[in-house]
């Protein structure tokens, strides 16, 4: 069971943009890592774009399960995990991350923010904390 990516996005008008993300691509071949990361970023944005405000969904994409939660205020989170990772845990993680993010990052920064301008450093910690270590 693995988590590959945890992203916070903003579903604005007219488009969705990434605010902050953390990735674990360590299980992939070194030469594949950047393209896998791009795929995860693109897929996260696409899923948020296609999700309604106030909705939660789990979408299968290739061998991954993408869990998305779009809040009514436009803040969205996506977890990309393998098929075995428990769905309930993913949504608990998304709730926790989005609540904390909205407390620490001003709502005024969401529409214009980017990974370079948003200062929120907890995603890497959550990604490793929620990683299930297999023996």
From TrEMBL:
Superkingdom: Eukaryota
Domain Longin: residue ranges: 8-127
Family: Belongs to the synaptobrevin family.
Record organism: Pomatostomus ruficeps
Lineage, top ranks: Eukaryota, Metazoa, Chordata, Craniata, Vertebrata
This protein's name: YKT6B protein
Record's bilayer topology term: Lipid-anchor
Listed GO CC annotations: Golgi apparatus
PANTHER family, sorted: SYNAPTOBREVIN HOMOLOG YKT6
UniProt xrefs under Pfam families: Longin
GO molecular function terms noted in the UniProt entry: SNAP receptor activity
Any one GO biological process: protein transport
Alphabetical list of Gene3D superfamilies matching this protein: Longin domain (3.30.450.50)
Subcellular localization(s) per the UniProt record: Endomembrane system
Record keywords, A-Z: Lipoprotein, Membrane, Methylation, Palmitate, Prenylation, Protein transport, Transport
């Amino acid at each position: 069971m693995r988590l590959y990516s945890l992203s916070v996005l903003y579903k604005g008008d007219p488009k969705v943009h990434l605010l902050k993300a953390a990735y674990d691509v360590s299980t992939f071949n070194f030469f594949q890592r950047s393209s896998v990361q791009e795929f995860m970023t693109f897929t996260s944005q696409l899923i948020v774009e296609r999700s309604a405000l106030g909705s939660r969904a789990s979408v299968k994409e290739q061998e991954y399960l993408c869990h998305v939660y779009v809040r009514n205020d436009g803040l969205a989170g996506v977890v990309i995990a393998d098929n075995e990772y428990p769905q309930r845990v993913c949504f608990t993680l998304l709730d926790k991350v989005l609540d904390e993010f909205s407390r620490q990052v001003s709502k005024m920064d969401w529409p214009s923010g980017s990974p370079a301008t948003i200062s929120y450093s907890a995603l890497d910690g959550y990604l490793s904390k929620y990683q299930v270590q297999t023996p």
